[in-house]
Amino acid sequence: MFWHKEPDIKYYVCTINKTFAKPGQRMYFQVNYTEENLLDYIDPNNDTLMVRLADGHLLAECRMMLGTDKRATITTNWSEFRRRANIREGDICAFRFRITSKRRLVLTVHRL
């Protein structure tokens, strides 16, 4: 007998491809968010989230939106964060979304 169990560790893992590594590009996530899910954590008047490198040495405020294809998308400042974090094409990264006690969305980036 099988049943669905949510994973204990909730990471989105991907290889940074050519698109994600280009200056000025966005980071797309294949996660099932709806506009309602995102609005639970992102104020429509301030649709930003903090993105931090797992070692804590880099923190950036980025914009989060729901793309037309229903993928969660990090836009503003992602390219600059990626450059400063020295994340390049071919790198494997794990992304973890977390909700703070103030119900703000934080994204932690782990380079593997």
Automatic annotation (TrEMBL):
It is found in: Nucleus. Keywords: DNA-binding, Nucleus, Transcription, Transcription regulation. InterPro entries: DNA-bd_pseudobarrel_sf. GO terms for cellular component: nucleus. Its main location: nucleus. One of its GO terms (molecular function) is DNA binding. This is TF-B3 domain-containing protein.
